[in-house]
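Ticket closed. Logging final result for Pentatricopeptide repeat-containing protein.
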Amino acid sequence: MSLNFHTRNKIRAILATTRRFSEVIVLHTCSCSDDIYFHKRLFARTRAIAYFYSSWSSDNRSSIPGLATGMRGQCVERDDLDDRKHDFDGIGETGSKESRISSSGNRIYSWGGEKCNRDGFDKFCESEEEAGESEGDSDDDFRVLDSYMQRERREVPRRIEVDEDELRHPLVREICRLIDLRAAWTPKLESELKRLLCSLKPSQVCAVLRAQSDERVALKFFYWADRQWRYRHNPIVYHAMLKVLDKTKLCQGAKHILRLMVRRKIEIWPEDFGCVMVSFSRAGHLRKAMQVLTLMQRAGVELDISVCNTAINVLVEGKRLEKALRFLQRMLVVGIEPNVITYNCLIKGYCEMNQVEGAIKLIEEMPLKVVLLLIVSYYTVMGFLCKEGRIDELRGLAEKMARESTLLPDQVTYNTLIHMLSKHGHAEEALGFLREAEERGFHIDKLGHTAIVNCFCQEGRIDRAKDIVDEMLLKGCNPDVVTYTAVLHGFCQIGEVDKAKKLLQQMYKHGCKPNCVSYTAVLNGLCKTGNSSEAREMVNMSEGWWTPNAVTYSVIMHGFRREGKLSEACDIVREMIRKGFYPSPVEINLLIQSLCQVGRTGQAKTLMEECLRKGCAVNVVNFTTVIHGFCRKDELDAALSVLDDMYLNNKHPDEVTYTTVIDALGRNGRLNEATEMTKKMLHSGLLPTPVTYRSLIHHFCQQCRVDDLLKLMEKMLPRKNCKTAYNQVIEKLCCFGHIDEAYKLLGKVLRTASRVDANTCHVLMRSYLKHGNPLGSYRVACRMFNRNLVPDLKLCEKVSKKLIILQKLDEADRLMLRFVERGCVPPKDKQAAFG
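Final structure:
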């Protein structure tokens, strides 16, 4: 199909423009210093070409294949400003929406009527990387408030709702399962995950992110999914990812997500900047957290009360209460009205700084329009007073609340006070408020009574708790299973298991059926008193009455373990696994450790392998415990075999694992293998620990292989410096009688001339004296004086006496004269010093 005259003219103009751009590229390479700016302009032109090319019909494109191919090559746009390369945690950044160039040459993006200067954003991020961590109280971060323009705003709901059905969706659960298997990924698994990803709705992607127990894994999945072909994150996913990151210290990840949103022209909510602020604050970067306000201003996103509240909370959490108050004053000046959340953040800050009077004064200054919400502010102060046990002030605050704020304490107030006092261990005071509430006609439900009962039980005052339960029965407020379980737990804590068993039977008489928690409390009491077999029988008889859970089996397993009945404990673990209850790595490790301590390391290894086959979460610590058990028995071949099994099961050894094997090899004289194992540890990127240094130094010095030790230490010290490494070598050589070898290393110790070095020199001097060589001690003392280190006077007096006995009078005289020159021995006492 032929092109009309008008279309051909357009094509000629575009091709001419392209040729001119090629000439500009050559000139720009020689003269322009701002490459990033040039590429931005070039990409803008390329998008114009892409827009024209996409406007043709399919017939027109097919009629000019050569031009179509060339244009298609120019239409590929990628955001290459970020040079990060990822695999699972990678990301390929793309963008395709419209933009325009401002008169100053900077690119301006439009987000729903708001403008964002992208260049200003990137420059801010670059300057932020170079900024120091000054935590001064400068108000420079408040300047963003000065640009606030007060105008009527329409509140837009911006909540990201992920309902429980999405979390339980089969697709979401399958993707979470595949993510958990990421350490053993194969191309087939990754292909399956890619296929499922394209079937997810945006809300389901958010559910996958929120379902991850480790936020770092969620971030890696976000990056991985973003670089997949024919998939693009929905804007809601970016908001959800930032919401996940604000619970962590992954501030750099949160900042990177924000930069991606800017580059891809995704509308940024003020709450997104708040998430980044919180993440920086959690990471301890208070200054950078406050700089996010400036970033928000440069991005063209206007402040709102939620971001201001976040800023105040960040300052309060950073112990900058005065700065938070100044921020509040600046908010009032520019016309941002604080709400009850603002005041509550400041009240919390006052309480954390132990300034209750300031908190109460702030409550009095709160505007009348929030008077109905004052009760929340009072509860914040009351919670602090309850925690501190300041009951008199608590009552005074309640009276002040009724007198000045016309907020009479109601049933909710009393319930709150009772729960707060009980939580912090003030049972009698909580009971006093319960009596007062009942005198005023309020009805405290069983939850309030149960809180007091539990508090009394934790204090060991079971009789008082039992009296309250009897009062509840008289009042018609029947105790529930939670109340009885608290009393059962209290009886078991003080060893009254028989009374607990009787109360268990009485519960049926009062129409309250015990549940699994009730029985587990009694079983725990039996196991603590050494009756684990009886507890096991109760579990066997539980059918039809109650159903044991994982905690129940764990209690009995630990009971058998404490009693030394390890075979029965292993049987309990196997029964747990058969019934679908998987013991945690900590529980497995405790049992493995007990088996190793009694020399049953082979059985420990068998149990660990069985748990691993059944799907239990066996970790590196469990393998290390088994290896340590074999090393204690000097069964090094078995220990090395378990080390190989770790690699086969994709469990990478850590520093403790390597150190355990290195120590065992050195103890058995296999120093060459210990050296190779140390090099392997360093090659794996692991750093030697102080225990690693001590172990190697001990075994190499014992066999006087100093040269090999020094060569090995030269490789270890650059990776993980140990300031006392050479001190330890000298002291160990002295311990094993290799004094001359120790003296050769004295120069490495005297480089720093610290107190630790002086102690090492004293060890060497005593070793020389012990072997009848006071001249060696004299040489060490002289070298100490030359390095401005003063030896121990009493030790040098012993050296002087030994030198006199050997007729070395000149050396003895010079040694003591050095002390006189230093002013350590007065001249008149010189003769006494020679003694």
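The longest strand covers residues 107-111. No further action required.
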